[in-house]
């Protein structure tokens, strides 16, 4: 596993919060951060990777998913008609192959190649490891963890219900469990210890605990759980000075309120600030990424800073993905956030 002084790693957060400046600041403070490339166009990915030449960092990609069900597609088309927006064309591959090529050709190759929504097969994982990168996979169940180990990953990131952003379920239609992080880590560790036909197969990769950790006491406790080598925090950095979090989302987080885990943001289960649309659409199906794309046309401008000046109904479709207890998130520099979490 990567050798860094900090017990806290900076989780990949797609959509803008993670910037090259944040990654460099985390490195300077003895931590390690991930560049999220899941929804980044390959050319933009190459530009971001070039900005990180000479630095330590990881990348995170969305693993390709199967097409959505016919029922989910019909629902999304009907919603597009109802809202008066164009039904989007989508790419279920998330440009994965091109992004892998961009990563391999980066001026400085990442130290870690990580995935959400799935895990590379064993041969691909081995090829990435031969290229000098550790392979990490995000899991949400013991079954996914066992499958990740069978594919030869180096580290397993255990993501629980309190986490902000998307749950990393390997199937878009899967309903994520709601176990607290402590319980899910224990289940994953026990399953890895008990499964396998040989002692070698029963080896347990290091675990990274992710989901809702907000202060040094919670981080310290998580590090005592079986198998946990590091913790991963994302939402804790959303208000950091170096974060690319939009003004409107900074304002929403500072205002506080309830967070919900729902498909109504994107079609995959994700946790974020509750909105009028999430309240009125509790039964959204697995229409990812279609729902995310069509709602994007209705969301408030990222530059909106004064929530009181928003247009009528504009905040009904706000897209502020954040974990539980947003009122506990503080600003400051990345170094200051890490200091608070590592005490």
UniProtKB/TrEMBL annotation:
- Reactions that this protein is recorded to catalyse: 3 propionate 3-nitronate + 3 O2 + H2O = 3 3-oxopropanoate + 2 nitrate + nitrite + H2O2 + 3 H(+)
The protein's matches in Pfam families, at most eight in alphabetical order, are given as: NMO
GO biological process entries: response to toxic substance
Example of a GO MF term: nitronate monooxygenase activity
Q: Which cofactor(s) does the record list?
A: FMN
Per its UniProt record, what InterPro entries does this chain match?
A: Aldolase_TIM, NMO
Q: Name the keywords, alphabetized.
A: Detoxification, Flavoprotein, FMN, Monooxygenase, Oxidoreductase
> What family classification does the UniProt entry report for this protein?
Belongs to the nitronate monooxygenase family. NMO class I subfamily.
Q: What is this protein called?
A: Propionate 3-nitronate monooxygenase
The top of its lineage is: Bacteria, Bacillati, Actinomycetota, Actinomycetes, Mycobacteriales
